[in-house]
Structures are given as C-alpha cells and as structure tokens.
Amino acid sequence: MTRVLAQRAVLGVFALTAVLFVLSGFIAPALLSGPSLRTIGVLSSFVIIASFGQGIVILSGGLDLSIGSIITLGGVLLGAWVPQSNVGLWWAVPAILVIGFAFGAFNGFGVTVLRIPAFVMTLATGIIVQSAVLEYTKGAPQATAAPQLIADLIDSKWWGIPIIIYFVFVFIVIASLLENMSSFGRLVHAIGANPKAGVVAGLRSNCVTIGCYAISGFCAALCGIVLLGFVGAPILSMGDPYTMDSIAAVVVGGSSILGGIGTFPGTVGGALFLGVLSNDMTALGMKAAWRTLIQGAIIVLALIVFRSLQSERRRSRSGGAMSAVKQILLSAREPAE
C-alpha cells in the first residue's frame, strides 16, 4: 500500500507542477521563458536542500521546527568568518556543517532520551539558536557580502544553467540513495511506519531517530551556506520562511505527516510546485500575508487528499480480505465429494 501511494503521489505532484507551469503563461507569457525557469530552479534549490532533512524527520514520525533558525545561523556564521576573498572557506564550511549536525543531534537526544515531544523540543532549540545569533551579531550582522565562491554558485552558469542547480542535482541523487537504498533509510521507514514494532524487532530506534534529526540540522546548515550566496549578505530572518516551506514541500510531495510513508522525489516535486506557485504569486503582486495563507491552505488540502487516498486504499484491501474470507467459509460448507 505504501509503495503504491508514494508512486501515485510522486506522479501526481509532478503532473500538477507541469499543469501549473503551463497555466502561468496566462498570467504573463514571460513566466514561460528561460529566465523564469532558472529563477524557479534556483529558488526551489534551497527548499529542496532543507526539505530533505525535514522529510527524513517526518518519515521517522517527528517534526523539525528549528530548521529556519539553523539556516540563519549557517548564513550568519559564514558571513562573519569568511570574507569575500574566500580566505578561511576551507575550514568554515565544515565547521558550520558540524554545528548544524550537532544542533540536530541535540534535538534527537531531547526527543528520544528525554522524551520531549518533537514539536516542543525543536521549537525550543530554534528559539535558543535564534537568540544566540541575535546575541552574536548584536542585532546587526557585520558582513556586507558573501564569499565569492559561494556567490558564484548562484551567479555563474554552465551551458546557461546556474551552477547551484547542478549542485542540487547531485544532492538529490545522494539523498535519494541514502533514503531508499541504504539500511539506514529502510530503518527510518520501518520506525516511522510502526515505532513499537521497530522496538520489538530490536531496531536501534533511538540511534536512528537521533540520526534523522542530525541530518536535518546538517541540511539546514548547508542550506544557510548556499542561501548566503543568493541573499548576498547575512540577514537575521533569512531562514525564517524555510521551516514552513520545508514542511509544505514534504506534505505536498505525498509524505504522511504521521511518518512511515514518503519519498524524496515526491518532496522534490513538492518543492518545484511551491517554486512555480511562488513565481506566479510574485507576478500577480500578492502580499506576503496572502502568500502565507495560500501556502497553509495547500498544506491542509494535501493532507486531506492524502488521507482520502489512504482510506480508499484501506477500504479496497478490507473488501478484498472480506471476499477471501467469505470464499473460504463457503468452500468449507460445501459437502465433500
């Protein structure tokens, strides 16, 4: 059942994205142009990176609300530690990724060992990180430009395509292999589908869950690093939209918010759908409040559709099982020849 639902979700979200993109031409023909496609690709790249971490946490049955704060932390630290000349970039990037990984592991420790609900634990960590960033910068980051090499990820092109898109393509391949082909990914699916069964079966559920949150922190820090190249200079609110965006991409991509069901390709499709939608709303001149409202409505609608698909599949399986039972009973009543 889960594999069928996941496949239908992936196909559905990519088909819906294609339809929305074609309909964008009615808003403005320029939305179907090459520059518009590149804009969608670049903006979706940040959501895709953040959404892998959020998606693997949701797949395990959790939720990470600290992603936005860790993204901001990554961008602020890189801007503070590395000048535009790239001096020190070789040690700053790994250090920031380790810090993000550590904050994610801290979230996982709180959720598994201290038994703090994921919503509360990750929200508290996000507040702690945001406060630490505010204190570190004294309310105003001093950096005025991103390191040149990071900026080139966004500005430079190869065959007319921004380098960041190639980078994210490699990221998607590696992330998909980790989620679907590794033993770790299979354990995440198993624990998310049935945590109690995972414990009974002897799965190291605490270690796997901590690993999921650590990966989420790592991805958030990576997103902050590459996002700095797009923003140009660190901003204290640069990561704020990505907590909601990452949840939206995962849910729209067909993952169950309760865990156990979902694929990263579906999440990629969800991120692209949100990118096209954001591009259209910008062309229409929508205010930020309306954009957030529409995004929230899409999350609710996606949850309703996914629940209905689950119920339909469950009813069909129940009906098939009942028919089989009836057939067995009828066969048992027939007199033996």
Task: Describe the protein's architecture and organization.
With 337 residues, the chain is mainly alpha-helical. The chain has 13 helices and 2 strands, in the order H-H-H-H-H-H-E-E-H-H-H-H-H-H-H. Strands 1-2 form a two-stranded antiparallel ribbon. The mean pLDDT is 85.
List the helices and strands and how they pair.
Elements: H1 2-27, H2 34-59, H3 67-81, H4 89-112, H5 118-137, H6 148-155, E1 157-158, E2 161-162, H7 163-180, H8 183-193, H9 195-200, H10 205-231, H11 240-252, H12 264-283, H13 288-333
Antiparallel strand pairs: 1-2
Helix pairs in contact: 1-12, 2-7, 2-10, 2-11, 2-12, 3-4, 3-5, 3-10, 3-11, 4-5, 4-10, 6-10, 8-10, 11-12, 11-13
Task: Write a short abstract of this structure.
The protein has 13 helices and two strands; from the N terminus they run H-H-H-H-H-H-E-E-H-H-H-H-H-H-H.
List the defining traits of the structure above.
globular; mainly alpha; ABC transporter involved in vitamin B12 uptake, BtuC; 337 residues; two-stranded antiparallel ribbon
